[in-house]
Amino acid sequence: MNGTPRILNRILIGILGAKLLVIGALLVLLATVPAVGSWWQGWSAEAWAGVRGLFDQTRFPGRSESWLWFVMVVLLLAVIGVMVAWLAQQGKGRANLLVAADDAGEVPGSVRIGGGVAEQALRAALADRPDLAGATVATYEFEGQPALRIRVQPRQGVAPHILATEVSALVQALDAVVGKRTPVLIHIGSGARSRFGRAERVR
Amino acid sequence: MSHAAERHHRGAAPHDAAPHEAAPQEAAPQEAAPLETGAGPIAAPDSGPDLRPGGARMERVLARETSSSRASAAIIAAILVIGLCGYALLETAVRAVGQPPWLIDPQTAADRVTALPAGVAPLLLGVTGAVVFAAGLFFFLNAVLPGRRARHVLADPRAAVVVDDEVIASALARRARLAANVTQEQVMVVVSRRQVLVNVRPTSGVPLREADVQAAVEAELRAMAPSPMPEVRVNLAASGVIGA
Fold this sequence. Notes:
The complex is a heterodimer of chains A (203) and B (244).
Chain A: H1 6-32, H2 34-57, H3 68-89, E1 97-102, E2 110-114, H4 115-127, E3 132-142, E4 145-154, H5 160-178, E5 184-188, H6 192-196
Parallel strand pairs in A: 4-5
Antiparallel strand pairs in A: 1-2, 3-4
Helix pairs in contact in A: 1-2, 4-5
Chain B: E1 7-10, H1 27-32, H2 56-65, H3 71-96, H4 106-114, H5 122-144, E2 151-154, E3 160-164, H6 165-180, E4 187-191, E5 195-200, H7 210-224, E6 226-227, E7 231-236
Parallel strand pairs in B: 5-7
Antiparallel strand pairs in B: 1-4, 2-3, 2-6, 4-5
Helix pairs in contact in B: 6-7
């Protein structure tokens, strides 16, 4: 439920993948089929001559360098900047506030409840359970609204539906405290700790 | 059914858990108690229509959670492009200020590329091409394939619940092990999107009915009610284990 831009990811990865596919196929064909080699030499020499002419036309007056090199530097910097921005989009979406609302009472002002309230209360409630190898709670912003993500790692053999019901009951108790129904995602997963840790013995 | 969407699980819970497996879960109400301390509600808990399970927002959360975000492939792609652009930037900047190149002058590089089959050993060229092609295939398939995660959705009145297939397999393996009365090494459960495969290797000399195991696993699965609901297949191994 984080804000990773999934469609953008797919589009950009697809563009890169298609380019690499074409380049790779061209290289293999160049190495194996002689006819492709002669075609490539003719076609690319022509294209390169055109680019070269462009560089010759754009020289600084009185110097041998073209200012197109500076344009390329700027373009490459822009591409790198866009890539860094794209990287920064992955897995974003953590939020700090669980509730930010106007109080209905007579005292002026608004009420804000930090996400740490829900996170620590739920974590403390889940901490002592013998059937869990670990539990983490995090507040995310999903479509502009705060939402809670509860990730529990049960030990081997724990029935997930019973665990889900119990965690859901905890969430309902939290609803009563906070006074607002926050969207909640319960993820019952497995990790190294539940895989290699001891199994639950007695309940 | 793709093999990538499968989770293998061997064995389950220990032997002495048997009498407790159906015990009611008494811990929950007490553990909920510390949450209900003071601080009366500001307002009555409001429930927007899209917060409820089955609501549009929850549907979107669940759709996101059961499919891959492609973040790892995106990170690899971005780092690859940054590296290539960084090197090209270095050579271009060096060229722009009229300094000697670091590794290769952009113009010389272009000349070499236009002359291509000549100047490079065909084997090296072919292998390079194949590697680039494979990398392209990796990214392209990542972009095109649906990318389902090995997870199922459970129904719950309050929250959206997703369960890793591995956890389901572990719970079913435990149930199958209890029904078949074998040790945990003798049961292996594979859960995929539409199918649960239970492999049981019986103890030599102890008869084992396939229908018992099937019924037990199906009952557990019905109580769990994952969506989509997989169907159960039980495989009894022809040879047994000695001394289990």
